[in-house]
Amino acid sequence: MSSPRVGMLIGTGPTAMKTSLALSLAKGLCQRGAFVEIFFYGDGLHNTETGVSVKNIMRDVEQVASMGASLSVCVNMAKNRGIVANNIAKHVKIESLISFSSILSDSDCVVAVNP
Predict the structure, then answer these.
(1) pLDDT for residue 1
(2) Which superkingdom is the protein from (predicted)?
(3) C-alpha–C-alpha distance, residues 3 and 114, integer Å
(4) Partners of 10 in the beta sheet?
(5) Which backbone phi and psi does 95 adopt, to 5 degrees?
(6) Is the pTM of this model over 0.90?
(7) Nearest by Cα to 91 from 54, 64, 51
(8) Nearest to 60 by CA among 75, 40, 81
(9) What is the fold of 5-113?
C-alpha cells in the first residue's frame, strides 16, 4: 500500500495560530509516512520569506521541508506582494495555480487553512 498523499493550502500569515497548527499537522503527517504537499497562497506566502521570526514559523517551514514535504508558493501572489525568489526559503518552489490543481487532484485528502 502506498503512502497517503495530503495536500494543504495555507492562506494564513505567520502571526495566525492556524498557521502553527497547520505546520504541526504537516510534521505529524510526515512522521507517520504521509507525503505532504503544501501550497502557500495569499498571506500564507509570508511564512516562506527568509527572516520571518514570528513564532518560529521559518523553523517549522524548514522542518517540514526536511521531513520530505513539498512546499510551493503562488507565483502571481508573490509578484503582487513584491516577494522575489531570493527572499523565499530555499526548499520552497515558486509555481502557478496549475500546480495547486495538481495537488488537489493527486491528494487523498486536502486541508485548507484560511483566515
Answers:
(1) 60
(2) Bacteria
(3) 26
(4) 40, 113
(5) -140, 170
(6) yes
(7) 64
(8) 40
(9) Hypothetical Protein Ychn; Chain: A, (3.40.1260)
Q: State whether residue 20 is helix, strand or coil.
A: helix
For the chain, which ranges sit under pLDDT 70?
1, 53, 55
5 phi, psi to nearest 5 deg: -105, 125
43/10 Cα distance (integer angstroms):
8
Distance between the two ends of the chain, CA-based, in angstroms? Answer: 35
Which amino acid type is present at position 29? L
Report pLDDT for 55. Answer: 65
Q: How far apart are CA 47 and CA 19, in angstroms?
A: 8
Phi, psi (5° rounding) for residue 91?
-90, 0
Taking alpha carbons only, the member of 65, 71, 81, 61 closest to residue 20 is 61
pLDDT at res. 95: 96
Beta-bridge mates of residue 71: 38, 92
